[in-house]
Amino acid sequence: MSARDDVLARVRAALSGTTAQGRPTAAGAGPARVPVPRDYRAHGDLAPGSAEAVEVLVDRLEDYKAHVHRADGPTDVARIVGELLARATSVVVPPGLDDGWLSGLTAGTAVVHDARDDPRTPDELDHVDAVVTGARVAIADTGTIVLDGEPDQGRRAITLVPDLHVCVVRTDQVLHTVPEAVRLLAAHPARPQTWISGPSATSDIELSRVEGVHGPRTLHVVLVPSGT
Amino acid sequence: MSRTFLGLPVPRRTGGARTLPDDVDRPGGHGTSSGPGAASDAFGDVPHPDAPLRWGDTFPDAAREALQNTQLRRNLAHATSTIRAKRAAVVDEVPDWEALRDAGSAIKTDVMARLPELLEELERSVVARGGVVHWARDADEANRIVTGLVQAKGVDEVVKVKSMATQEIGLNEALAAEGIAAYETDLAELIVQLADDMPSHILVPAIHRNRAEIREIFLARMGDAPPDLSDVPRELAMAARAHLRRKFLSAKVAISGANFGVADTGTLTVVESEGNGRMCLTLPETLITVMGIEKVVPTYTDLEVFLQLLPRSSTGERMNPYTSLWTGVTPGDGPQEFHLVLLDNGRTDVLADEVGRAALHCIRCSACLNVCPVYERVGGHAYGSVYPGPIGAILTPQLTKSSGGMSGHRDPNASLPYASTLCGACYEVCPVKIDIPSILVELRAREVDADRGRPTGWGAAMKAASFVLSDARRFALAEKAAGLGRVVAGPKGRISTLPPPASGWTRSRDLPAPAKQTFRDWWRDRPSAEPGPPGHDGPEVPPNPGLGDEGEGR
Fold it and tell me: Are residues B424 and B482 in the same domain?
């Protein structure tokens, strides 16, 4: 008997004759589903993209040592990105990034392009100072930004190896709660996702939080109003 | 008992078959273990056990040793009180926390009821997205599968994400025996691995070490640690970053566990903080994930429950810094070869127990460890298993049932259900509402049943008690004899040592001195009055009726 068949047979034997609550099942009936009460909040009180939701997001991001910048439009994004990367000698960008966001870069900052069909190696990325991406969705309640690998966010490696991550989030992408975000992401569950809540951190030494370990040690979030 | 330099109790049953990769000569390298040659005097010989689910003495013996270690207790008290406060603060701000717990509990109950079909669905989903699924009956089989996969890639080193499943099967030691060095990349796991230690906490395996001890370990064992390294946590973290950077960038194969495996989409999830997980899950060409069969969840949207419950319960954060979700292979992004190893290793034995199976609902948050008064004082090593604390006390005996883990006095694991005061704090904080105290009581009953028929001190005492209590004259004589106890107890009114078999009681508790006056004497001698309902005008009651002089020790 293969290990697969053996393990499955053991699982069936372990369950035989009872439901999970210990009640005998009707003869021949398949395993009964256990009803799941879902009385938790499927939606928060704050409307997606509302000023209140954005306020909560900013509060949570700053609590976990991310730097937040408010842009009043795309030109302003370029100005902020330019200032943040003034001392960077190189920046890697995904293939679908809004070119306008990079128009504030100085001549001293080389732009490195990366794509699934033209990937940089980990060693090449290790020599790049920064990365600029968009985002898929943000969760106000937890201060979380989710990337799902689409062209404005790129391969997972580019937001991991460089030490500084500038992430541009549109305010209409800000949702209040985790369930709202999961249900939005469920439209494309197979996309590789990275949920980011602040810069990398560890609590492994005396359970005191230290920001900045293996992932980017600096996270800048640029919030830009939607429809601008 | 042997001790490390830093005063930690160590497992006494040594693993004789440990084979180590020759990693000592590599500059800045650290491997599965530092090797016999590198076992510096500073850390002594801390042997790894043969069985990660059963090592060391029985819990009462190991606990007594651990309680002598004041440094360990200080470290644990500081760490667990910190995390308890953080958890309480972030749980309190969630208005629907109890509803989330109810949902999490019910989803896990549903998973167990439908486990065969969900596992088959998960397998189909992973394969459909380009992954390969393997099944392992036990630790040896899982280790053979992983070793074979690594060897097929022609490499002799792998990077690892912290994973309880691979701790449980002793994967690092199995790989070392085949000449493959496994590099733990989680900071706490790195500390444990460098010190050639065993983990003592599910989430923070090095919780028993303070910053000064960690600095010493890094300086002695890390090779490329800066000589002027201080004990500031940030500096220690930066030393680990520099140490592991090259390994991450060059690794061809990574090994991980999984927090959740989604049946309907084939999505795997790893929840972490440092980014070492992302490094391992993203940069290597091949990813091997070892997952216990109980970690499957039915649907993608079930993650909306667990990704709220887990971070707040474990690290006390609203959300952990990084959560990675991947589904099979994504062309052009991340590992292009993905293997999922589904592990039984005793889980079906747990599942077969209608009461005990709730232990499989555990999402490994470790909140129960942090609130447990027993864990806080004895630490994780006393439990003799990679699963310590309240959840370990119900999980370890059941996982090792087939090798005697619940077989009564003959197995050290059978003592684990007694490693609790039954105070109930673990149940209160459990994000999936595992009723740990009730399961502990149930397992204690099983342990007693397993010993039934064998003469025990307890059985003899109960027989004697039955003989005495069933006859008024015999009882009166016994009462008189008990008065002698006051002589044994002395002026403190406490009896701390008695000869066997009563030593079984006094070994871990004081016995209060018997009362000066028995209840029956008191009743006879009380001032006579008209019998009536008790009240202010009732008979005067002598002070402290029928009880000993000392309030303490009862």
Answer: no
